[in-house]
Amino acid sequence: MWDSETESVGGRDYGNGVLSTSKPGVKTDGFEQRGQSWHVATDIPSDLLVQIGDVSFHLHKYPLLSRSGKMNRAVYELRETELNKIALDDLPGGPEAFELAAKFCYGIAVDLTATNISGLRCAAEYLEMTEDLEEGNLIFKTEAFLSYVVLSSWRDSIVVLKSCEKLSPWAENLQIVRRCSESIAWKACANPKGIRWQYTGKHPRSVSSPKWNEMKDSSPSRNTPVPPDWWFEDVSILRIDHFVRVITAIKVKGMRYELVGAAIMHYAGKWLPGLVKEGSGSVSGAAVDEGSNSSNSNGSSSSWKGGLHMIVVGSKEDLPAVQAKDQRMIIESLISIIPPQKDSVSCSFLLRLLRMANMLKVAPALVTELEKRVGMQFEQATLADLLIPSYKHETLYDVDLVQRLLEHFLVQEQSENSSPSRQSFSDTKMYDGAQRGTNPNAKMRVARLVDSYLTEVSRDRNLSLTKFQVLAEALPESARTCDDGLYRAIDSYLKAHPTLTEHERKRLCRVMDCQKLSIDACMHAAQNERLPLRVVVQVLFSEQVKISNALANGLLKEPGESNYQPLISNRKTLLEGTPQSFQEGWASAKKDINTLKFELETMKTKYLALQNDMETLQRQFDKVAKPKQTSAWTTGWKKLTKLAKATENNDIGPQVQNGDLSRKTPRRWRNSIS
């Protein structure tokens, strides 16, 4: 408690706009309130009326003039008028702060507390109660109380920072907000083992409106260790701009990003309707579990637990009445202070935040940044978190948003796989323990998630075939080892869209690989009347190949043994549970299939016959094309030729001269069968 000095003001000359008094200070026993008016308990009649809003103060000039430069000038301006009324509607702190300042001027003891110190400090600055007018004036004493009492206390720093919400911009200009934020940050980063001050304990499953004047103390004891998230509840009562100042200061001082992210989720759970805790019985969502994401002193942490979120509204009885504009400001501020490290906040929290950001039309740049953050840890998402309503009323769910999230995930995967060596030390530290590029199961988890999402959104009659196909084909083929989930989604889409043409149904089924279907899925697909006939044949062939391979590899026993019996029983069970209309359609399809099989066998027979004819012709051609040996007929022909030549020589012999007889016999003709 600071007591103002009761001094008589000596005679001073009035000049330069400052009015001095030559009368001693007014002695009083205190102030009396009469309705909306305050009166000084003294026999001396008041000669000055100060009006602040609806509250009026009937005071005396001289006690105020002796310590307030503002009142000096105001009274000086009234010297030529008969009115003695001054209006101070813009006084920071309002009537409560002026009451304390007036009591200080009258020499009445004033109790300085964490609740009134910020308003009184701003009022003293407004009234210009400086050391130039009086030694030990109100500015000096309030500043000393702030520096030596408030800032050394955790609880007082929180209370003062909370009280500064109504004192802008005075509290900012006087550095009250900055100093309190720094003090809170230093204490929050302190070793929990060394904490000896009081702090607010966690309220068990309470979603009531945050009220800083209803905080429940938890005093640390020697036997009970202080959890590292001890400061969450206290800082969550602050307004969003002050909370951002505190978190920024905490991040600068090196707080672990897991704790910073957990504090942000805790704050969002308090101030954003729609982030209601799991198990509360509301369909509006799940809020931050105060202890779920905080790390203990040994570095362990637990995961975020999410719930269903079908409607983004809260209960008016449980949640603070925050307007849409304020909610938008809170979301934008929280997005800007989320630590950049992966897993600093859960993917479930990011998706809830993204849902509300779309609903409240947050700045597009921040929404894009939030989508990229979700893509970094998309494999952690759940189906309930992805079912975000579409606010454009084209489809029931925002399929385009999920498509963008999947694209961000694939881009992140590609960048991590393509350049793992380019990561700097800071990046390595950022993603330490959470590398996804070397984890092949991430794409498989995302594939299962996308298949489940497609099954859910396929029931929407407004969902176009193109959107369904693009989302189904976004992942590479290696991401799916089994297409059963994709088959369920296709079957659900065909059921919800019975007017599709044959071409559209074939186009839809192209996204599925029949060879990746399990035996049970093959049996169901073979009986599915909604599938195109060509797809049914492919499924039957695939099933036959699988069974043959299984038999060849010894995975299945003989048909009469036990391992093969469950397949037969499952087929019978499926047929018995099928409605009559389905069975009739299947009978017709089965007849067509048998016809195709018969035609196929006929073609095989014709092919074999043609192959035999071809072989016969080939043998005949080979015989004809072989080189011919000398036969008896050829030898006889040569003999006849020689005989003809001899006869010709005998006829012309007498005409030939003797010299010609010595000539060489002419060369024989070349015999040829041609």
UniProtKB/TrEMBL annotation:
Q: Does the keyword Hydrolase apply?
A: no
Question: Locations of Basic residues compositional bias?
Answer: 664-674
Lineage at the top is:
Eukaryota, Viridiplantae, Streptophyta, Embryophyta, Tracheophyta
List all Low complexity biased stretches.
291-303
Domain NPH3, by residue range, is 229-546
Q: What are the protein's UniProt keywords? A: Ubl conjugation pathway
Give me the ranges of the annotated region Disordered: 204-224, 283-303, 417-439, 646-674
Record's protein name: Root phototropism protein 3
